[in-house]
Amino acid sequence: MKRILYIMAACLLACSGASAQISPAALQKWKDRKYSMFIHFGVYSKLGGVWENKPISRGLSEQIRAHAAGLYSDTYEEVAATFDPEKWNPDSIAILAKNAGMGSVVITSKHHDGFALWDCAFTTFDIMDATPYKRDILKELSEACKRHGIAFGLYFSLIDWHFPAAMPVSGHNSDSIPPDHHTYNKNQVTELLSKYGPVSELWFDMGSMTLAQSQEMRELVHRLQPDCLIGSRIGNNMGDFTVMGDNQEPDYIIGVPWQSPASFFHETWGYRSWQERGDIRKKEREKLTSLVRVASRGGNFLLNIGPKGDGTVVPFEQDALLAIGDWLKKNSEAIYGTHPDPFHVPFEWGSITSRDNKLYLHIMTTPANNTILLPGLKGKVIKAYLLEDKTPVKTSSTAAGVTVQVPAGLDVSQWFKVIVLDIPGGYSVPPVNIQPLDKPVVLDNNNAFKYFSNATVDYNTSFTSTIRNAWTLAPARSGAYKPVLTYAAEEKGKKITLQLGTNTSELELSNDEEIKLDNDITQVKFGELYLQGPLYSGVGGTNGSLKDLDVNKPWPRNDGKPWAKHAEYKNGTQYTLPAGLMTGYYVFQEITSPRTQQLLVKVTSGDAVMVFLNGKNLFLQNNPYKKDSIVHYVLLPLSEGKNQLVVKLFNHFKKSLPFNIDYSVPQVYYRKTLPAVQMEKGKYYPVSWQLAKPLTPHDEMGMPNLKLEISKK
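== alpha-L-fucosidase ==
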C-alpha cells in the first residue's frame, strides 16, 4: 500500500503548472476567524518533559529528543513503541475548540523529532508503524473538524531529526535542507494535502531553505490546495501571512495578514508534566487580553494546548479555554469578523475593535472618572450599550470627539466588558499622521507612519520590515502644490507606488535630474575605525545603546570589552572578519563636520546591515538572496561638530563577514518633479509610498534616502 502511495505522490510532484493565488474569499475567511487552536502532540507527549526520571528543563519539552542526554534516535524509537494515546478523542478536541470559540485547529503533523502523526508512505516512523496505537490521528481529526464545523490546519517541521539525509541536531534549528531531505519534505507535504480534505493553513517551522526551495514548496502547496494559506516560516518571504515570534504581540501596525502564536506557558508548547501552572484565573485573563489585543490590531490569535501522552487535554488548559469560550459567547460580535482599532492613539483603559458602523470598546481597566474620550470621532451614535446584557450607556458628542460614560461599579477585575457604539450612518476618525501644510513640508522616513511585516529568510534571521510609509496632508490654503521627489544611489532604478491625494501612480526612480550634494568632503575629518565583536546577535536590534558612545569604556555592558582601535583599517578598503552563526560586529567612526551637511556613504556588508548616526537608526536591510556581499548607499545627515557613525554587520550563513565604509563615491542625489496637485483648505490628503510589485509583500522597502517635498506654487 505504501508503495502505491509513493507512486501517487511522485506523479503529483511531476505535474507542472503555475502556483495558484489565494482567493480573496479564502483569505477573508481566514482573517475573520480571529482565534484558533494550536496543538503540539506526538511522541514527546509521552515523556512529558521527563527522561530517566529527571525533569529536562533545558529547551522546550517538544524538543526533548535534542536536549535529554542519552535519548538517541534508536532510544526515541523505543519510546515511540510505547506511545499509545488511547484516550485521544478527535471529536472531543473539535468540540473543545468549538466551545472555546476557536474557528480552526492547527495540529503538529510532524515536529522536529520527525515522527509523523499520519499513515505516511515515506517513513515507518509514524503513528501506524512505530506505535501500538495504529490509528491515523490526522485522518480522524480532520473528519471530526468537518463534522463540527471548524477548519483543519497543519503544522509541519521542515527540519527532521530522524530522517538520515537531514542535517544533524543543532542548537539553533535553522538548518539547511539538503536535496534528498527537501524531496522527502515535498513528498510528505503532498500526502498531507492530498489525503485529508481541505487544509486551511500549512504552518511551516524552522529550517533554512534556499529561495528556490521555498518557492518550490510554495508552488507545490498552492497547486495541490490553492486556498491553503502558508505561514511565513516557510522562509524567504514566501508566506501568505506573517507569523509573529512565539508569544509576540506587536504594538505596531502590520500591513499584511498576520498571526500571533501563543503557548499557555512560555517554557514549553508540548506537554510538561512538572509545569507549574499557577492561578487559572490569572491565566484566563492573560490569554483573553492577548486575544483582544491581537484582534484589535488586525491579527489572528493561535493559542496552543499540549495534550498528555494518553491523549487527554490538561484540565487546566481545558478549563481556561472553556472560560474564555463563555466570554466569547456573550461578546462574539466584538471579535469575529471585526476590523482593527481605527484610532491611531493608545488607550490606557483597553482596546477597540470595529465594523463599518460600530465600535466595540473592550474595557480592561476602569478609566479615570469612569469616562472615555474617543478623540476626533465624528458620527451620530444612535445607541450605546453593554454587549453582554444590552445595559444602556450614556454618550455625548463635543468638538473634541465622543465621550462615553462607563457605568459606575462596572466590574472588569476578571472579565472585560464590551461597550458597543452603534453608528448606523458610519463614522470617521482623524486620519493617520497629520502633517500641517502651512509651509514647505518634507516627508521621509523620520516622520512617516510605518506599516510593517516580517522579512523572513528563516526563523533566526527574521526582522521587522517596513513595507509602506504614510502621511496625511492638511493644507492651510487652497490652491496648487508642487511635489518633488529626491533620492540617492540606493533608490536609483527602483519602482514605487506613490499615492498623492486621490491620485495613485507607479514611478520609476531613474533618468532624473542629477544634483551635487551641498557638502565639502575635503573639510570633513574622519576618525580611526574601531571594532566591537564578535557578539551573538540577530538581524535587527543592537546589543546595547549606541547613543553617545565612549570607545574607551566597556560595551555593551560594564562586563563587556572596550572598542578595539584598528589603525590599519582605511575607508574605501574592503576587509573580511571571521564569523559564525548569528554573529554581529559593530564598526565605529567619529566624523567631524564644519557645518550641517549631508554625506553619502557606501557600505559593504554580509547577511545584513544597520547604519546608525548619533544613536539614530538610519537603515536596516538583510541579504535575501544570500549573496557573498551586499552594497548600500546611505545619506548621513551630519551635524556641525562631532558625529558618531556606527555600522552593525551581521552574519548568519557564512564563515566570514566582509565590510567596507567608503566615502569616495559621487556625492550626488536625484530630483524628480511631479505634476502639481490641487488641494483645498479644510480637507485631508493621504500620501504614501511603497515598492511597486515587490517580489513578495513582506520585502523591506530599503529606501532610506527617499524624500517628498511639497510646497505651495
